[in-house]
Structure to design on (655 residues):
């Protein structure tokens, strides 16, 4: 951590010297960045004039260097680019935690580097450009033509404009991934789970993050479903389409929840496949609610028998709804029960 | 009385600055099992600072700038100081800035009453800890199986019969354990148990050990016996999680069988019991403020919580 901080410090230090060099060469620059340029001082100095004479020249541009700093706050009042980024709602405090982003952002010029991208993003339907850049600042490095190609690829795969806007807004990394990678990943999902084109599109819209998620993790979770839980291929497919987030969950937690449902609560696998939402629920929540129902003698999850508690009801809703509607008890009793665990 | 208090609180909770200032003191929370105390500190500070950031926070300061040509006309402009903007310097309240520490450390597998000090309350938490107040635990055990780490998640290393153990066997053993601990206390004070001095000592209140390492049991009894499961209620100081687990293991051995621990719950810490404890779903600012007030009242009513002057043995 300290080392990282130090690296940022160094980056900024290098940067402030770069800035001053740039300004020495081109006098235009940003008026706020008034660095003393040594060349100017040398030229202005006429040998005839005595130092005791009154100075009538404008020396207001002579100012100390920007000091090295740990954060953007020191620069933001002077830098036009940073001010524009703040207006766009970009969270600079998040960006400055990544050392490689800091030096990159400080070198940007708003009119040249950022403006076109903002126009492009709002054209394809991203509402909050600031949040987008906060999530994926390296989009500013990308070539606009490449971004157009990536959007056109999606259009060629018959994604509608609304779908593209939704995908890009919810997964800002998508546009930074090149077309070949996206194509191979969509291909992987289509081949692995035997999806139709329509289903692939639905999957990408429902959970765009899954497509750019590391494939290794998706394969690992597929292994957990098929081998460790013993699901059939068509069951895995239906779970993928109903709850794609399951493939991004940590496999250890997934298996723990499954084992509790299957072994402790005696729920058959077919029922779990029908309601994949239960696997997304945190284990402590399922355990608390199941034990409460069990203590009341209401833990009956078989839909063929009377007093049946649906799995969806078990995991959804607030504790008040659960204790009154499902457990036919009161919140006070539920809270008292929780304090006995 | 209560109405005015809740009114005052709702006024506080509109403004983040005054809410931050009011966050001082001890809160009593219900620690779930299988979560560490460190994690609970992190959750609490994160949730509190998150909620404070959503309230009305301090606005940005002013930035004064002199503009124009120095040879002709200079103007003074007052702008919003962007260097103070939450998007640039980060959210106003940071979890790291909120001091939070526990007064009684509960182990990973223990659930129950946990006293937490917030901000200046961490000092009170420290005092409560150094005063060695009594805690009550309800420890569940299972006869017939021994595990390698004395807890239910360990590997079973031995299985024994346990049908011959009756409730009165258990009671007899527990009373032996209790009396041996009581004798140990008086032995350490160096007075004869049958003397008047020993009586005078006992009248003054609980005898506490001066060092914080030796566990002492003040009372132990079986509150529920449904073989193979049993529940023991233990009143003690200086205990730690492994000590309680090992105690259950030892009880099993002494009963000519084996046992392992299946759950540890702290049901009382000095004057705080489960009724005062906040459940995890109630760790929100409003509940925390109510709890701060309630716990503050209890501490001010009982002076011996922070300034205990009963007998101390070396």
């Amino acid at each position: 951590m300290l080392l990282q901080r130090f690296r940022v410090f160094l980056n900024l230090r290098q940067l402030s010297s770069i800035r001053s060099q740039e300004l020495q060469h081109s006098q235009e620059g940003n008026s706020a960045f008034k660095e003393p340029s040594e060349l100017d001082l040398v030229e202005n100095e006429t040998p005839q004039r005595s130092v005791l004479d009154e100075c009538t020249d404008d020396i207001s541009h002579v100012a100390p260097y920007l000091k090295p700093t740990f954060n953007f706050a020191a620069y933001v009042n002077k830098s036009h680019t940073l001010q524009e980024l703040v207006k766009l709602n970009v969270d600079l405090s998040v960006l400055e935690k990544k050392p490689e982003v800091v030096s990159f952002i400080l070198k940007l010029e708003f009119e040249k580097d950022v403006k076109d991208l903002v126009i492009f993003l709002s054209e394809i339907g991203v509402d909050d450009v600031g949040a987008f850049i906060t999530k994926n600042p390296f989009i500013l490095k990308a070539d606009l033509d490449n971004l157009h190609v990536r959007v056109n690829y999606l259009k060629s795969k018959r994604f509608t404009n609304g779908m593209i806007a939704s995908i890009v807004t919810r997964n800002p990394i998508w546009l930074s991934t090149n077309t070949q990678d996206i194509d191979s990943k969509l291909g992987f999902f289509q081949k692995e789970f035997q999806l139709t084109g329509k289903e692939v599109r639905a999957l990408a819209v429902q959970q765009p993050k899954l497509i750019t998620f590391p494939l290794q993790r998706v394969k690992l979770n597929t292994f957990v479903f098929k081998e460790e839980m013993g699901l059939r291929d068509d069951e895995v497919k239906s779970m993928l389409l109903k709850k794609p987030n399951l493939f991004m969950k940590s496999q250890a937690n997934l298996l723990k929840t499954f084992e509790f449902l299957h072994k402790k609560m005696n729920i058959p696998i077919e029922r779990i496949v029908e309601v994949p939402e239960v696997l997304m629920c945190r284990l402590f929540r399922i355990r608390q609610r199941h034990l409460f129902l069990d203590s009341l003698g209401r833990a009956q999850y078989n839909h063929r028998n009377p007093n049946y508690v649906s799995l969806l009801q078990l995991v959804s809703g607030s504790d008040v709804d659960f204790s009154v509607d499902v457990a036919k008890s009161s919140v006070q009793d539920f809270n008292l029960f929780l304090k006995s665990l | 009385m209560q109405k005015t208090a809740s009114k005052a609180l709702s006024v506080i909770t509109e403004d983040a600055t005054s809410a931050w200032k009011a966050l001082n003191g001890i809160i009593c929370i219900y620690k779930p099992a299988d979560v560490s105390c460190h994690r609970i500190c992190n959750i609490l500070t994160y949730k509190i600072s998150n909620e404070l950031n959503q309230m009305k926070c301090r606005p940005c300061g002013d930035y004064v700038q002199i503009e124009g040509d120095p040879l002709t006309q200079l103007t003074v402009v007052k702008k919003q100081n962007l260097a103070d903007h939450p998007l640039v310097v980060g959210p106003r309240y940071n979890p790291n800035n909120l001091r939070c520490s526990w007064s009684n450390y509960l182990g990973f597998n223990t659930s129950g009453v946990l006293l937490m000090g917030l901000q200046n309350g961490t000092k009170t938490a420290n005092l409560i800890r150094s005063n060695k107040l009594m805690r009550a635990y309800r420890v569940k055990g299972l006869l017939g199986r021994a595990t390698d780490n004395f807890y239910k998640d360990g590997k079973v290393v031995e299985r024994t019969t346990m049908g011959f153990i009756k409730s009165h066997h258990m009671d007899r053993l527990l009373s032996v354990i209790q009396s041996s601990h009581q004798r140990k206390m008086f032995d350490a004070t160096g007075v004869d148990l049958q003397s008047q001095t020993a009586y005078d000592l006992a009248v003054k209140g609980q005898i506490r050990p001066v060092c914080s390492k030796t566990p002492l049991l003040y009372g132990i009894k079986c509150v529920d016996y449904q073989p193979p499961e049993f529940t023991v209620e233990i009143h003690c100081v200086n205990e730690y999680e492994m000590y309680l687990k090992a105690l259950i293991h030892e009880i099993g051995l002494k009963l000519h069988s084996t046992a392992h621990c299946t759950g540890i719950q702290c049901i009382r810490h000095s004057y705080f019991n489960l009724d005062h404890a906040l459940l995890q779903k109630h760790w929100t600012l409003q509940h925390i403020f109510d709890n701060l007030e309630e716990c503050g009242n209890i501490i001010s009513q009982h002076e011996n919580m922070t300034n205990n002057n009963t007998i101390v043995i070396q």
Summary: Chain A touches chain B at residues 58, 60, 71-74, 76-77, 82-83, 86, 89-93, 284, 319, 335, 338-341 (CB under 8 Å). Confidence is low (pLDDT under 50) at residues 1-43 of chain A. The first helix of chain A runs from residue 2 to 25.
